Amino acid sequence: DDDDDDDDTPGGLLRGNDPSLWEGEDVTLDEENAELDRQIDELERELSGEGVDGSVVGGSSPFFDPALSDEPWDRYGRSRRDDSSDEGGGDGDDDEEGLSTFHKELERKMEMVSRNAREFTLEYDDDHPEEAEEEAQLEEAEYVRSLSSIGLTSPRLENAAVNPNAEAYFQRPPDERQGYDVMWTSAVDTPCVKNLYGIFRDYGVQFADNFADWDEGSIDGGDGFRSIEDIASYKARSVFRVTGLPCVASRTSFEVEPMRPEDAERTVGGDAVPGGRKATRRGGQKNQRVVTGYRFNNIGEHVDRVVQSLLPFSEPTRTTRFRSCVCYYDGEMELFEYGELDCDLYFAGSMRTFIPMSAAINAMLKSLELALDLQFQKWLRSAANDSTVGGARNNGASMKLRDRVLKEAKVLPNDIIDVSSFMDAFVDVDLMDECGQELAERFVSAKPSKILTIATTGLVIAIPIAKYLQVPLVYARKQRSVVMADTFDAGYNSKTIGQDQQLLVSRDHIDEDDRVLIIDDFLSSGSSQEALLRIISEAGATAVGVGVLLEKEYEAGRKSLSGFGVPVESVVRIASVRDGIIQLMEENEHANM
Fold first, then answer.
1. Residue 24, by phi and psi: left (phi above 0), alpha (psi -120 to 50) or beta?
2. Cβ contacts of residue 127 below 8 Å, gap of 6+?
3. Which residues pair with 223 in a beta bridge?
4. Which of 100, 139, 356, 384 supports an S-S bond with 339, CB 3.0-4.6 Å?
């Protein structure tokens, strides 16, 4: 019967964690305590610097060996420091005081930073700036001294500190062709690197490298009792001293709350532990290692082992907390941001670190956006401004289009304007390209992510605009294609092709995160543009504007679109076609719109 009861609980999931805990039907309290003591003693040996097999864990990292070094900076090229190291005979031997080349270089840069760096603080005495500056420098020096006792080491960072090829690698300029403006470094756990890089990429930040191979210091040295702020700051400052680049570093702690008295009585007194199995407990004795709380200032396999050890003897809802700290340091400013996750013990594990780390990285981005004036997709604005002659409005394009309309356009019955000699059946691609430049400059500040137009007449102007804004182009069809299985659709009326028409856009081409710019050749009644706006709304995306080549001012197109709250831009506005004569709005009126 007991076996059947166990199968009805989530115990099958827990048995996979540590099979040795689940072998046998009945386990005495002494046997359970002995097993728990063995696992925790093993964990303590590892954290104190002794491996399970007696080998030393942590300590000094391997010294740089040029014959074995295969880092990115080794493949990038040699720097000016290469010649100086050859002349000085820098072979990596310890000096008379027993200091390695790495530690001498680290101390030299630490002294330089201590003299020049200023602690970022909101408290500043305007009446006595010199005293406030001196006090800030003293606090910075004291803080640096307190961090010097931390024993964390990074073999790759040690390599970079003495490797003659590293300087040129870290001092290389950012890749402007990919939209990067600045070069930083990072010291976060490898699984979180893509999240960090992806978030900051849109703000022009390129990361030269990530130093994630930190060997933990021993508990005897006090590193296990340091705050996560101290550890993150130490990592960021150490990387900055060696590379000279701003650094984003992180540290995450893990806590298990002490067991509540009522839970301790229930789990020790002989009741079945939810999610576990029934066990015979003699004497009602409490195991202090189960009841007590735990706190670790780093994340690793020990977190999973502690969780596995405590699960059989704890309520599954026993609370654990993951707290991540992200530190930014650039020699002058230091910022900290945090992310937290409270999680039931049953679901706890080292992989949960992604959640608080993601929150901390996003919070850091918002702070640095204000502190450093980071701009979203600044490269896109620059590219569009460069393509439009330094951002100045290209009125030459509108003048050329006005001239072609007055000379070649024809007025057909029902006030239809025929521009097929340069915009429809026969396309002046140079004129369309210049008009595309002008409209692209008008909408660059709207930051569109896609352009939506109507096939086929809208493509003549939408394609050059997409080129200058560097965004994808999506066009709506008037008839369903065999490749369009699932679509957004909206109806509209047209003077040229008739009533009750339909526009179709594949659902795969627009999603809720898109910022969509509508481009078309004409704005008349506004019916077709309104249909596109309804499609954008149905997709959950955001419409950022409507741009057209020619706008019929005498029709109600602009008014019909006013309810959508989007800007409407046109290159040329037609005032009337009375008696078959095309009259345009004056150029000064157009410029002021």
1. left
2. none
3. none
4. 356
Torsions phi, psi of 414, nearest 5? Answer: 65, 25
Q: Are 461 and 518 in contact (CB under 8 A)?
A: no
402 sits in which H/E element: helix 395-408
Q: Are 27 and 279 in contact (CB under 8 A)?
A: yes
Strands 319-329 and 334-344 turn out to be antiparallel
Burial class (CB in 10 A: 0-12, 13-18, 19+), 567: middle
Closest alpha carbon to 423 in 509, 316, 522, 517:
522
For residue 515, the tally of other CB atoms under 10 A from its CB is 16
Note the pLDDT of residue 229: 92
Count how many residues are written for the chain: 593
Q: Chain-centre distance of CA 26, in angstroms?
A: 50
Would you state the structure tokens that stand for residue 132, as one six-digit string? 């406030």
What is the pLDDT at residue 224? 74
Burial class (CB in 10 A: 0-12, 13-18, 19+), 460: buried
Q: What is the pLDDT of residue 323?
A: 94
The low-confidence residues of the chain, meaning pLDDT below 70, are 1-29, 42-69, 77-129, 132, 217-222, 262-286, 379-395, 496-498, 587-593
Output the CA angle 72-78-79, nearest 5 degrees.
Answer: 115
Six-digit token string for 153: 């080491």
DSSP letter for each residue of 466-506? HHHHT--EEEEBSS--TT-SSEEEEEEEETTTEEEEEEEEE
Please state the φ and ψ torsions of residue 47, each to the nearest 5 degrees. Answer: -70, -25
* Contact by Cβ (8 Å): 236, 246: no
Cα–Cα dist 444/377, whole Å: 11
Residue with tokens 């596109």: 532
Q: Which residue has the tokens 């540290």?
A: 251
CB 339 within 8 A of CB 355: yes
The closest alpha carbon to 4, from 272, 311, 263, 269, belongs to 272
Give the pair of three-digit tokens for residue 38.
């063995």
The token pair at 472 is 């994808």
DSSP-derived secondary structure letter, 65:
-
Q: How far apart are CA 150 and CA 199, in angstroms?
A: 30
Determine phi and psi for 26, rounding to 5 degrees.
-125, 130
Q: How many CB atoms lie within 10 A of CB 9?
A: 16
CA distances from 91 to 72, 94, 100, 130, 198 (A): 21, 9, 10, 44, 39
d(C-alpha 468, C-alpha 77), whole Å: 36
pTM, to two decimals: 0.50
Q: Do the strands 498-506 and 487-494 form a parallel or antiparallel pair, or are they unpaired?
A: antiparallel
Per-residue burial over 347-382, b if 16 or more Cβ lie within 10 Å, else e, is ebbbebbbebbbbbbebbbeebeeebebeebebbeb
Cα separation of 573 and 583, whole Å? Answer: 9
How many whole angstroms separate alpha carbon 575 and alpha carbon 572? 10
